[in-house]
Amino acid sequence: MPSYTPPTKDLQFVLHDVLKVTESKTPGYEELEPDFTAAILDEAGKLTSAVLAPLNAVGDREGCRLENGVVYTPKGFKEAFEKVKEGGWTGLDMPEQYGGQNMPYVIGTAVGEMFSAANQAFTMYQGLTHGAASAILAHGTDAQKDTYLPNMVSCEWTGTMNLTEPHCGTDLGLMRTKAAPQGDGSFKITGQKIFISSGEHDMADNIIHLVLAKIEGGPEGIKGVSLFIVPKFMVNEDGSLGERNGVTVGSIEEKMGIHGNSTCVMNYDGATGYLLGEEHKGMRAMFTMMNEARVGVGMQGLAQADVAYQNAVIYANDRLQGRAVTGAAYPDKPADPLIVHPDIRRSLMDQKSFAEGARAFILWGASMIDAAHRADDKDADGLVSLLTPVIKGFLTDQGYDMTVKAQQIYGGHGYIEEWGMSQFTRDARIAMIYEGANGVQALDLVGRKLAQDGGKHVMAFFDMVKNFIKDNAGEDTEFDTAFLDPLKAASKDLQSAGMYFMQNGMKNPNHALAGSNDFMHMFGHVCLGLMWAKMGLAAKNALAAGTGDAQFYKTKLATGRYYMARQLPATALHLTRIQSGADTVMALAEADF
Amino acid sequence: MPSYTPPTKDLQFVLHDVLKVTESKTPGYEELEPDFTAAILDEAGKLTSAVLAPLNAVGDREGCRLENGVVYTPKGFKEAFEKVKEGGWTGLDMPEQYGGQNMPYVIGTAVGEMFSAANQAFTMYQGLTHGAASAILAHGTDAQKDTYLPNMVSCEWTGTMNLTEPHCGTDLGLMRTKAAPQGDGSFKITGQKIFISSGEHDMADNIIHLVLAKIEGGPEGIKGVSLFIVPKFMVNEDGSLGERNGVTVGSIEEKMGIHGNSTCVMNYDGATGYLLGEEHKGMRAMFTMMNEARVGVGMQGLAQADVAYQNAVIYANDRLQGRAVTGAAYPDKPADPLIVHPDIRRSLMDQKSFAEGARAFILWGASMIDAAHRADDKDADGLVSLLTPVIKGFLTDQGYDMTVKAQQIYGGHGYIEEWGMSQFTRDARIAMIYEGANGVQALDLVGRKLAQDGGKHVMAFFDMVKNFIKDNAGEDTEFDTAFLDPLKAASKDLQSAGMYFMQNGMKNPNHALAGSNDFMHMFGHVCLGLMWAKMGLAAKNALAAGTGDAQFYKTKLATGRYYMARQLPATALHLTRIQSGADTVMALAEADF
């Protein structure tokens, strides 16, 4: 049975040594003193390791069960959900007005990583609710907010997002679900939605579905899509629950992983719905929560990679097999533990340097979302908007690869369900797909975000990297060589790729899009390179100051050196591929595949 | 429900246009005329697509069931196994003396690819039998061969290989299973073996277990391991089945994939066993079949990648989503099919260029095994021995990645079991683990094979590449630029890596082993690059001669150009990593992970 140790020390390092949150001007950050955040993280950590992690395998094994229209969650989920609610964790970064604690999103994200790592399928019930509540918060009327938010913030009621239909996912313009106005301000919603996470279950009194549908007679395609609130039970004026609405679960999907979450086919048969936001502006309303949701999914990539890594380390230290090539490390044992072998080290270092780099990247992203929302910082908003597809696409692709590496450490036992490593890869697999498949993220990055506001945000990113290097070079040759030089080279590769797109994408956009996946990955590497340079600097400074745990900082530097030497150079390969253009990619006729 | 189209045309292309099998001096190859091999491949292809492929999902869904010591295979497996036996497919490349058809291994491999692609879990029952029969053929006495081989060649009896124990897999020196001599030439075998594929099932009258065990009083560690034949039912002198032997199935494992194959815990409680080969030379006997088995597992990596690719192409052509960035490709349809999008193309081209390159690599390897076995060609034996870990490790790592890419094309549907794409990845995952986890393959390559016979075989490989380039350069600038130049650069990278190992591995072997995984992958890329250059040349020549299907050859060239431009340059990244040495890999103390 796998275990989970909350990475609270590492989260604290990123918040305080690297991001220096208390020095930020973002409102609310001044309260984030180390003792305060430590208390929150420790408390959340205890809950995740003691309550949620032990249920992870249970959820996988039992899955959800549909009987007579009722979906039953796995044994223990209900009780655990009660504990999560009691602790106030569901409203951590929600407004006090609706029962939340009004903490910055960066804290919600740090806590969220631990929740996701301990039990991704379970955490999705509250995650989807958070997303739906955010949309109501951003686009709802005061009456809607008052009606739904208090119960959603507390997770007495949960939420869902209904986008996909059998014939359309990415291309929502093809949507068929209809909304017919009833003359009283409400609509009748009719259609079928699929892949609805937490669509129906037994852990909440009510479920608030946010549903995309087309109002009859509206514009064609994506421009005619509106967003609706469709409660499972109607809500009376006094807030009590009324009649059952015309929305039912058709079936639950049998999936590769996240079995503990009920993924439902939802049928809307003239269900009563209420417009959320403006008519025909449903995509805009949906995108508000989608950016946040995409950062959250990127975090899932990190989370599964980290818990899988932790267990790989335990196994690599326990399992005796072979001898170190440089001579027996433990001559008193019948064999040495796996961890003495260089190729096992290589794999563990890949995982460790990814997880820690990704953690910094995610929290940096979350801090920019806070700056955008709490301080109306347009630059932060632009930059995090640029980086959102990178956070989602790169961290989930890489996160999945890392779970596969962790599973591999277990040899044959990695393939046996009982050991739990298979579940990490099966659960991690979905993150590459949902909230926009990673190919769509790459398309969003290269086709839209790169040129947004005249390319201002990508230029700002390059300037940030350049300035960081300039400000910190020349003081410590070893640091320059190990950290700053590789970062400079990788950033230059990324700029060359951008230049290639500019010069060739005009003539033929395929030259840009054929390199979109490579660009997303090289951008991710440069971001993690930047994070490692910042973490390396923070660790170096702490060592020089003689504060804190010296071994922790030395390990941080060593892990960073690994990333810079072994992972960051991937940018050169991505650049080579990008510069080979679209010709070989698009050469075949459809019939020749 | 996924489908499978046997790649008979492509197999014929490799056998005849590329390998030119009939021109080979290997005995038996002179019979392999195109019409003859086409007849075999077509017949096998029909069986695999019509009978085995439809059972693939059934096997995954139902799995195997253990009841009162009896293992039941999924519905339909028994009937399908009868058809495979009736067709004589189980003894295709086995000696006529024992009921086989004595075909070269290269034909067995070509047929085997289709069997594995259609239904990997099912095909393992005969695959393990083939491996066990090969070991008896190589090391058994005449009496043993006569007793076991006829029924194993026909698969009336199936076989297993018993190596792993709960506490040891790779490091078999730690083995605890004991063999006690009985004075009559037989032994009593006692111990527990795990992960025994096809260990117990209902499709054969008898199961012949090959079991590694230590004879009491023998040498310590790996040098005291012997190999034994342990039949499930004793075989009487007249060949009839006698008493049940003391071997029983303890449980069947719940695995991530290959559910249709029964993976068993086998308990030997004083079971009667017969020494196969010499005392204490069990590892040598096991390795005879292990090389063959490893090539077979490499083939599984290709097979799953190919069938997954085929279905990804179907979906990419069917699923309408979005519009081509260069303007609607199908303005009469509500949206364009996925296949118009450059990033979808990129993924499909990755898959296609891998599968076709891997197919050539596998068949080239098989032809060298034939040359070694049938013509006693020592050079071929040395080269295929060098390449075996590359075939196994590279093709299964990459093959798995390709199934993940194919699954990704399906978006959300790729995660739903009903669509079958999840099974391809779950089944493909095991190939990276069994028959020596891929880290062990990389260790075998760098730690043993590279320096074998004074490095003679790797030198021969480099000479082969050099000569191929020299012999074919200068006639066609486009071919030189697209194929030969990239091959030259990649081969140079590989040589530089070998040089780095020589110069630094002496001082500290960790400098070599920390790069072993990268070396295995760069070697694989160079091999596929060589295959693509050879296939490109064959296609170019056929086009020039005006023979055959011009579109097929043009497609082959275009696919090759893609591989050379987009995949082969990965060697440079691997070299960078290798040349960064072991310092960053080994920097951490065990407690710091």
TrEMBL record, chains A, B:
GO terms for molecular function: flavin adenine dinucleotide binding; oxidoreductase activity, acting on the CH-CH group of donors. Keywords: FAD, Flavoprotein, Oxidoreductase. This is 3-methylmercaptopropionyl-CoA dehydrogenase. Its EC number is 1.3.99.41. Belongs to the acyl-CoA dehydrogenase family. Its cofactor is FAD. SUPFAM superfamilies: Acyl-CoA dehydrogenase C-terminal domain-like, Acyl-CoA dehydrogenase NM domain-like. Residues 461-588 form the Acetyl-CoA dehydrogenase-like C-terminal domain. The lineage of its organism: Bacteria, Pseudomonadati, Pseudomonadota, Alphaproteobacteria, Rhodobacterales.
